[in-house]
Amino acid sequence: MTQSAFTLTYGDNGVAWLKIDVPDEKMNTLQSAFVDQVTTVLEELKTKSDLKGMVVHSGKPDNFIAGADIKMLAACTTAEEAQQLAAQGQVLFSQLEALPFHVVAAIHGPCLGGGLELALACHSRVCSDDDKTRLGLPEVQLGLLPGSGGTQRLPRLVGVANSLDMILTGKQLRAKKAKKIGLVEESIPLSILLDVAEKQALKPKPNRKSSLQEWALGGNALGRSLVFDQAAKKTHEKTRGNYPAVDAILEVIKVGLQDDLKKGFDLEAKRFGELVMSPESAALRSIFFATTAMKKEHGADAEPKTVKRIGVLGGGLMGGGISHVSAVKAKLSTRIKDIANDGIKNAMNYNFKLLEKQRKRRIISKAEQQSKMLSISGGTDYTGFNHVDVVIEAVFEDLNLKHQMVKEIEENGNAQTIFATNTSSLPIHQIAQAAERPENVVGLHYFSPVEKMPLVEVIPHEGTSEQTIATVVALAKKQGKTPIVVGDKAGFYVNRILAPYMNEAASVLMAGEPIEHIDNALLDFGFPVGPITLLDEVGVDIGAKIMPILVAELGERFQGPDVFDVLLADNRKGRKTGKGFYKYDSKKKEVDKTVYKLLNIEPQQHAAAIDIAQRCSLMMLNEAARCLDEGVIKSARDGDIGAIFGIGFPPFLGGPFRYMDQVGIERIVELLTDCTDKYGERFQPCDKLVAMANEGQTFYS
């Protein structure tokens, strides 16, 4: 007989204890198979007339319930089946809520999705003030809405504005914030969590019906309508109509508050079922499964060695960011080396500012801030580098300088020290040529700003040892990154697929299309920033440096229109010089129209936004397929994650490869062929796509 995840015990004082502990799993997740188990528990509780209260708690040491197991959604073949799953959850939680005694949820660790919906069905909630404790409804990030009553109970508990903020963004609240908005009654040390929950359970059930509910509804229909309109406007500015879950969330909450709870529940389950079947949710869930699988991978056939100390070469923007994720996220002793004291000062200041922001938001205390700063040190020589396990180099993109760095680390490090280079364009095998121990040399390409961007490309050259690869993959994960192992070819993967996309945007601009029209076209397609804005953010000088390398190594299709030299001659490097395609001296984002004269363009809108988006994205898709064919990436999955986490390829499309599957490879080849006739040879579909179209193949089975 299957062991139940739910165990009921009874205290002498009239308090029942419901422990949730999913057998053989690290995390508690809710599964459809538990329906019978929960029903049995509820039936038993209904027979107990002498109970004063109940505490619902977890049997796991570090999590309450991390949500529902989303694998069960993949088993649904119709919207009705998925709707039934949601309705089932609603019924069970409503039965829990209807128990005649005071039910208290004692929360420690992640309490997310279905876990929070269960806690909301309890009459009170108390949580530990531990940093592990997080409360949230992240379903929107999977293209869904909370389907077991969350859209109805949360607004009635914390108000419309707070609940919309949580449900529309999927954000997770720390204990302090959860208490502040009324989501939990108490935020207390873990050591007394169950004692406090027990005392709470012995009190009468809280009666919140009247005044709080009125306040939650915004007081009146007009106030409520205003809150919804503002939320809809703000959200649509971000999503641009690409995420159907957002509209469904707004509709379901509104109906529940305007009509009644039953109508709210019914619509919640219905919309949940429809969203499960949407292509957007399927794509977003595929990202979740891919990243979950990647967490278990080493990237190589070897065990990673233990890393305790990190060295960072260069105190610039990248060096500052790399030292931050090494010291603060990975909790490793970090030593920065720069040729000048100003570089060290800059990196230390960079770290201090990021930590100060956290301290001001009360995420960390003053003592924690000081402790984290003490784990970072720096100097202009190699003091302490003989004890360093991994050195991450973030100096200028100059091969001779990189060679010098390799030699100096081999002299000042130890025989096992790994030299990881954060180059964005130079081939790793060329950098390794200067090494006596090339097996310790590897590429570790971060994206800017390092503390925010989730991706890292790990680039071994032919001589890199398996242990070196496994060690830097494990290090990147400790730094909070998602690493993908990519081939040692010019541009690696992310910059290689980004370059033709950016070049095409520049070609569209040189054909006279207005800057904001181009950017808006790609924003509507789903990218987080437009390509022209991105060029300003990355820096025109960086683009000018990378393009010739790509042309030399990969051919003429990487030759973009000649705009870089003209812009650099006018000192237009983008945001960093306060001068680019956009103006940076005013609060409002606006195009610097003098750039048109400089480039000899008469801006006039001719092409439809969808055609511009298609032109630019097709160049990226074609190059991504080439990268897979050449072994630059190991799988379509890695290519999708790299594009989404590295350059913000629209997540709701699932990445370049899932998107090509969805559109159909044959159709992609047709579109590329059409563009070849219109715009030139650079659009020629690659051999792999042509072969796949002929064979009727897809990237994913």
From TrEMBL:
Pathway(s) where this gene product acts: Lipid metabolism; fatty acid beta-oxidation
Give the 3-hydroxyacyl-CoA dehydrogenase C-terminal domain ranges.
Answer: 491-584, 612-697
| Region listing for Enoyl-CoA hydratase, in residue ranges | 1-189
Keywords assigned by UniProt, alphabetized: Cytoplasm, Fatty acid metabolism, Isomerase, Lipid degradation, Lipid metabolism, Lyase, Multifunctional enzyme, NAD, Oxidoreductase
What is catalyzed by this enzyme?
A: a (3S)-3-hydroxyacyl-CoA + NAD(+) = a 3-oxoacyl-CoA + NADH + H(+); a (3S)-3-hydroxyacyl-CoA = a (2E)-enoyl-CoA + H2O; a 4-saturated-(3S)-3-hydroxyacyl-CoA = a (3E)-enoyl-CoA + H2O; (3S)-3-hydroxybutanoyl-CoA = (3R)-3-hydroxybutanoyl-CoA
User: Which superkingdom does the taxonomy of this entry point to?
Assistant: Bacteria
Site entry: Important for catalytic activity? 117, 139
Sequence segments annotated as region (3-hydroxyacyl-CoA dehydrogenase) = 305-701
InterPro entries under this entry? 3-OHacyl-CoA_DH_CS, 3-OHacyl-CoA_DH_NAD-bd, 3HC_DH_C, 6-PGluconate_DH-like_C_sf, ClpP/crotonase-like_dom_sf, Enoyl-CoA_hydra/iso, FA_oxidation_alpha_subunit, FadJ
* Matches recorded under Pfam families: 3HCDH, 3HCDH_N, ECH_1
CDD domains according to UniProt: crotonase-like
Q: What is its EC number?
A: 4.2.1.17, 5.1.2.3, 1.1.1.35
Give start and end of each 3-hydroxyacyl-CoA dehydrogenase NAD binding domain: 310-488
Which NCBIfam families has this protein been placed in?
FadJ, PRK11154.1
Subunit info here reads: Heterotetramer of two alpha chains (FadJ) and two beta chains (FadI).
Q: What is this protein called?
A: Fatty acid oxidation complex subunit alpha
The upper taxonomy is: Bacteria, Pseudomonadati, Pseudomonadota, Gammaproteobacteria, Vibrionales
